[in-house]
Batch of 2 targets.
Target 1
Amino acid sequence: MQVLYSASQQAHAPAFEFFRGERVPCFETPARAEFVRQALQARGHELVAPQDDSSALLLRVHHPGYLAFLQSAWKQWLALDPANAERQPFPSVWPVRNLRSDVEPDNFIARLGLYSMDNGSPLSAGTWVAAKAGADAAVSAARLLAQGARGVFCLTRPPGHHAGADVMGGYCFINHAAVAATALRECGCQRVAVLDVDYHHGNGTQSIFYERADVLVVSLHGDPRTEYPFYLGHADECGAGAGLGFNLNLPLPAGTPVAAWFDALETACARLQRFSPEALVVSLGLDTFAGDPICSFKLQSSDFVRLGVRLRRLQRPTVFVLEGGYAASELGTNAANVVDGFEQV
Ligand code: OKP
Ligand code: ZN
């Protein structure tokens, strides 16, 4: 399988995040992509550099004000104090409920809060470059499918599925899966489905397509009553307006056994097949792995082969977009297992 890979993803390298009130080293690291690259190359998959510029398409997924902020955020942070080069900005105030989000404040941290859902998306000097490279990869992947590829793998980071039209969150800045789905629509696919198998609900992807019937979003994830992102991902979220019936959430309790996870995957696949998409985007989070340090599903490495086999049986041209997965040293094996499962059928 062709693997879209850009070294620019390494440019996103914040040092720490907050976890239970403490500063801890980031779980989402450049090393993750390196493990995936090594494993895919070792199994003979070909690395391809993204050739497309996603700039125009990005504006169909994200709001212009948000993109402008993201693109210049680090420069603005440095303009406040050159010593900020050694510091990471975090939001500390958010326009919840009765506060106004229609006026962009001048204050940098206030704007960061306006465009954030949490304090869990640390910015670094290269965040924009890395996330933009991921969007370029998503557009290139769509083009390769349009040219006849059966499967393409976007080796992108940071992840994207928590990023909404005008909001970053959960390590995510640009929603690469949404960019891929939008690019596939533009390539002539009438119906595109997104299947999100990350441990965490892809709130950004859901929100972006919530009122659309041309992009079905199906997600298997930890129950938001106890798991991040907490405020979206419940079973009663079915889409709205023209999109009513085109969003399916399958929340599962933390600790769900492997057999029950694959049962839910069958439910997801049945809905996907009824929709009959001309292309499929898989938000491939591998944090469902039993050894993941921040998640609580139980998949073993061999289960990722089974996942790949099942996805191939859908018989849809498929773009895989890397999302989460924080057991870094096993991430390469788990990603390559999905790809090999997909290709072995
Ligand atoms: C991103 B993706 C750890 C708290 C958890 C949110 C998790 C984001 C996961 N500091 N922060 O869906 O894998
Ligand atoms: Zn996740």
Target 2
Amino acid sequence: MSARKRTVVLISGRGSNMTALIAAASNPDYPAEIVGVISDRANAAGLGIAAARGIATKVISRADHSSKEAHDGAIDAALVSFGAEIVALAGYMRILGARFVEKWLGRMINIHPALLPAFKGLDTHARALRAGIRIHGCTVHFVTLDMDDGPIIAQAAVPVMVGDNEDTLAARVLKAEHRLYPLALGLVAEGKARMEGGRTVLAHFADDADNSTSVVMAPDPLREETDLEHLARITP
Ligand code: GRF
């Protein structure tokens, strides 16, 4: 296998997606290695989890920098010092500036808790419930200048169940996120998903004759969570 891609994860909080990426990368056959974790918040729970797994961590807080550009610049310098080839945003709660985004274009990815392009921004689960959609999920995409707008790499779907509240729905989506993000980072690290001309170009999969690519891009769609016929019977 060619060299594993050096990946740095940016977090602001809990770090459960970061943890899923670290777990996937603990397999030496996985095409990316997590070489560092950067948080803009000193109290991010994910920092302790990363450190406990032997990953280098850095806190780079906005308050320690005179401007947004200076903050972005410090993060960029840290990425360079880690030798980062890929940047994975995992619950990083700040908008990165144009200069930073352009520098890492095609090499920076993010996970969003909704099936983009629906529900960009915050409070996706509450908005999904209000909208009454029956299928929700998560998306990994390349990061571009507009928030939650970059080319989609992979998605996973989950049902919205009768009686769901924001917490139950968030938990179901999060479980899917933890499968999806390692899969999507693996595709990017292997060069099987590339950003080209503002779109994601997916490699041709050798075993695509049976259309398995779409299953790869959306792992276990619905299957694990529910019986579709049952869902159809109880869905108003
Ligand atoms: C996830 O739901 C992710 O999709 C969103 O922020 C949340 C981060 O959770 N961008 P965690 O820190 O990975 O647990």
